Prior knowledge:
Strand order of the largest sheet of chain B: 6-7-8-3-9-10-12-11
Oligomer: heterodimer
CATH superfamily of the domain at 100-337 in chain A: MetI-like
Number of helices of chain A: 14
CATH class of the domain at 100-337 in chain A: Mainly Alpha
CATH architecture of the largest domain in chain B: 3-Layer(aba) Sandwich
Largest sheet of chain B: 8 strands, mixed
Structural class of chain A: mainly alpha
Number of strands of chain A: 0
Number of strands of chain B: 12
Radius of gyration of chain B: 21 Å
Order of helices and strands of chain B: HHEEEHEEHEHHHEHEHEEHHHEEH
Shape of chain B: globular
CATH superfamily of the largest domain in chain B: P-loop containing nucleotide triphosphate hydrolases
Helix content of chain B: 25-40%
Helix content of chain A: over 70%
Amino acid sequence: MAGRGKPSSLLNYIVLRLLLTLPMLFILLTLVFVLLRVAPGDPAAAMLGAHASVEVIDELRERMGLNRPLVVQYFDFIGDTLRGDLGKSFRFEVPVWDLVKHRLTATLELVFFAFLIAVVIGLAVGIFSANRRGTVWDLGGNVYGILTYAFPIFWLGIMCQLFFAVKLGWLPTSGRFTGFLSPPAMHTGLYVVDSLIEGRFDKLVTSLRYLALPASVLGVYISGIFARMVRTNMLQTLKSDYVQAARARGVKERWVSLRHGLKNALVPVVTVLGLQFALLLGGAVLTETTFSWPGLGSFLVGRLLERDYPAVQGIVTVFALGVVIMSIVIDIVNALIDPRIRY
Amino acid sequence: MNVEAVKIEAVKAEAVKAGARNVEAATVEPSEFGKETVLSARNLSTYYRTKRRVVKACEAVNLDLYRGEVYSLVGESACGKSTLGATLMNLVPDGTEVTGEIVFRGRNVLTLSKEELRRLRGTEIALIFQDPMTRLDPLMTIEKHFVEALQSHEPISRREAALRGARALDAVGVPPSRLRDYPHQFSGGMRQRIMIALALVFEPVLLVSDEATTSLDVVVQAQILHLMRSLKDRYGLAILNITHDLGVVAEISDKVGVMYGGHVVEQGTALEVFHRPAHPYTGGLLNSVVHMGTTQLSWIDGMPPDLGSPPPGCPYADRCDLESAECHRSFPPESRLSATHRVHCHRVAAGLAQGRDAQ
């Protein structure tokens, strides 16, 4: 029991967590494969349109490998995925990964900046409300939380476009980058980072200008829930015995509130935050569509409509990996916050 | 048999009244540190206001705490002991109504600003609690607890604060090498020692111990009590010891106050209260103590009054075997049996009046 949580125990913990995710991934891949085949609709028919003859459709099915037994298709899919090969898109006839990586990085960039905004606003409003429980300020914080969550996000997006882009003309309405410049060369896929790598200040500013509206709208939308979570959990910890004890020692109120109240409230908040991040990789569809952001969510919707099996399977695999990585990150962050989690 | 016991106590009380003057001479023992008053409460009341009712947790309390003295506050659960302790530090929830006066070293605690109050807490008045398992922040090392407390009150470097923490731990018998450990790595007794070390790192004048030994096993309890005693002797600490364990009280107290229904119904030196209890409730309480050799349990019938609707007269009247009509009408006045021994009981008051008439 002596000594603080050793780094090796944290490492063991991470390895264990990673091993536990393997069966989870396997189940998920199987589920996607089965669900796609069970769902009505045929990829070849969907691609060729309503007037194609049966022979043509069948020829395309043969080419796509859809006439093989399902078991063979399944094990091919699992084997390819394990080797890191997501297959070729039916529609575009290029490797799925090449299609996905641009969309994924676009979504990552959007969600990352939205989260940055959400965390800053959420923490500020949450802490502010918790420390002024029952006052007008607290009420204001609560109203903010409910309103932002209750607004349909596309409506908020359109209103912002109308006001900031059309009326004031400060920011572009939609898209990810201007046509007058070539986007920064792909290193990380995040335009902001790639602009910095290229050393092009103008490209950096352009990327940020295009990011500003969608990231803010998405960020404000999520910030309401965060604020409420931070507030609720902090009110709970501020009532705890160790907080009363700290006050009895005359600890500065700011420290009582932040070091004891906030820090102890963080574990549940980090958990929800992380899962929310993973969810948004695929769930930012509304924001992406409103702002014509070339992200993964809107791409997935398109491929689903076309029954592009390899593309959908590939995207879902990427999502699954995202969720797995995020939940490991959550566990590590929580283990760093709370010494009792390290075992 | 309960009736019998109280009657015996009543007889004892009569005896006290008879020899009141002698008792007075015998009980005032000069303390090593003189009689410097650390804290005195006058007519102190604490009411918790909820939407529907007012709970009078503490009513018209007078008490004085002196340097180098342990004052024990005893009584059943829910009689206002902990409220009184929290009130003395003005550590009651917002919206609680506190009236009267608490003078701590010349300052009225109730009129201090929030910041003045914060500066007082920890440095001059320290509080330790009943359940040490939940009183330390689970996410902080012991060292950080010390650094935070010290830096809240004085400009001091991390290193220096940690050093003082180590010394404080050493003084209460916790190996300073464990400064970097987290609370969950300690046992309950060790955590209470840490709480005491945290309380004493500033060398406060007054230590309020709210059932600090209640949740500990007897061996650890004895160690903690011994520790508190030695700290009192060494630094001239005044200790307000809130407890319902009469064994603990007998162990360390100089003065004893008996609380019932929000009132301090009897107070005096430990000798006076234990050997010549004047209030029927004190007698009942003492009789309820189980000794080695106890073959039959003795108790007081009934429950303490609901402080949300206290009876108009003496709060103990409903359970008292010696009650009269007067007891249900008005709260008894204070009778002084000696310079230190005071009691609120109509019977005692009547007895004293009779004694005066006789002279």
